[in-house]
């Protein structure tokens, strides 16, 4: 007798795996947490396997879950392609989306995946840069919509979230204990000055150990335990962890995540993409 996998349960499983937890995944799927949890339980029962390790605060995949994830993504992609091609209106064109590199993850890949399923003929060009540069490109009409990290929302923008900066370092690292405190930042990072001022107020000596135009260089240096860095809460890059410093490092300011959408050529696809971004941050 043939057996069938529940695509709805598979979609919830992939969303939880990519979001790192049931809460964020439930919001993105527009479902309750209990509904997502029930779908995951039914999927595990159908396969007779534990797919998620729930022993830690952040949900992790088991070996079986990791194996299923690739299959699940392919099944869902094929399902979405068939549905979109058979039912979607023939919207075409290109949208240019600008996002600061330090908040691309975890929301934007999920947004782009969902948008591509709904509008398979619309190309989204993702530009990753600094807030100041993105604001200038938006002003010149080179970008259709942008996300920014800033301390106040500008004219025409809307604030999606207000999040604190947090200290990050190498997994199990000790660089945060050293004095002077070794920092790693990009030259144009808007958070640098606030962090330096917070350290000065706390009387903590520091030195800029790593300066670069590349976020990858900064992340590599931090993951090697050569320095520490700060990120927007919830936007943790791989191979680093939030530092549990117990008050040894100062609290950091909060930043706004703002959205700006062009009103020059509004349309259903642009508004749909903006709506998915809003939804991702409402449930983040």
UniProtKB/TrEMBL annotation:
<dbReference type="InterPro" id="IPR036388">
    <property type="entry name" value="WH-like_DNA-bd_sf"/>
</dbReference>
<protein>
    <submittedName>
        <fullName>LysR family transcriptional regulator</fullName>
    </submittedName>
</protein>
<comment type="similarity">
    <text>Belongs to the LysR transcriptional regulatory family.</text>
</comment>
<dbReference type="Pfam" id="PF00126">
    <property type="entry name" value="HTH_1"/>
</dbReference>
<dbReference type="InterPro" id="IPR005119">
    <property type="entry name" value="LysR_subst-bd"/>
</dbReference>
<feature type="domain" description="HTH lysR-type">
    <location>
        <begin position="5"/>
        <end position="62"/>
    </location>
</feature>
<dbReference type="GO" id="GO:0003677">
    <property type="term" value="F:DNA binding"/>
</dbReference>
<dbReference type="InterPro" id="IPR050176">
    <property type="entry name" value="LTTR"/>
</dbReference>
<keyword id="KW-0805">Transcription regulation</keyword>
<dbReference type="InterPro" id="IPR000847">
    <property type="entry name" value="LysR_HTH_N"/>
</dbReference>
<keyword id="KW-0804">Transcription</keyword>
<dbReference type="GO" id="GO:0003700">
    <property type="term" value="F:DNA-binding transcription factor activity"/>
</dbReference>
<dbReference type="Pfam" id="PF03466">
    <property type="entry name" value="LysR_substrate"/>
</dbReference>
<keyword id="KW-0238">DNA-binding</keyword>
<dbReference type="InterPro" id="IPR036390">
    <property type="entry name" value="WH_DNA-bd_sf"/>
</dbReference>
């Amino acid at each position: 007798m043939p057996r069938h996998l529940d695509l709805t349960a598979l979609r919830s499983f992939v969303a939880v795996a990519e979001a790192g937890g049931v809460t964020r995944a439930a919001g993105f799927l527009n479902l309750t947490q209990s509904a997502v949890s029930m779908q995951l339980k039914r999927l595990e029962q159908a396969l007779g396997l534990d797919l998620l390790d729930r022993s830690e605060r952040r949900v992790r995949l088991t070996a079986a879950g990791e194996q299923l994830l690739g299959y699940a993504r392919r099944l869902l992609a094929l399902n979405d392609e068939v549905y979109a091609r058979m039912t979607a209106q023939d919207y075409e064109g290109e949208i240019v989306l600008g996002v600061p590199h330090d908040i691309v993850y975890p929301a934007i890949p999920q947004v782009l995946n969902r948008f591509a399923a709904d509008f398979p003929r619309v190309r989204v060009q993702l530009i990753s840069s600094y807030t100041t540069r993105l604001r200038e490109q938006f002003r010149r009409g080179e970008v259709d919509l942008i996300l920014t990290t800033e301390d106040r929302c500008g004219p025409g923008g809307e604030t999606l979230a207000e999040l604190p900066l947090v200290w990050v370092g190498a997994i199990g690292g000790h660089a945060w204990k050293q004095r002077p405190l070794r920092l790693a930042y990009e030259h144009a990072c808007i958070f640098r000055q606030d962090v330096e001022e917070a350290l000065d107020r706390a009387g903590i000596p520091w030195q800029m150990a790593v300066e670069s135009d590349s976020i990858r260089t900064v992340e590599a240096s931090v993951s090697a335990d050569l320095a520490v860095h700060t990120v927007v809460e919830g936007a943790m890059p791989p191979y680093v962890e939030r530092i549990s410093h117990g008050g040894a490092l100062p609290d950091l300011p909060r930043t706004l995540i703002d959205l700006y959408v062009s009103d020059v050529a509004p349309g259903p696809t642009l508004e749909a993409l903006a709506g998915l971004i809003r939804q991702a941050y409402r449930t983040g």
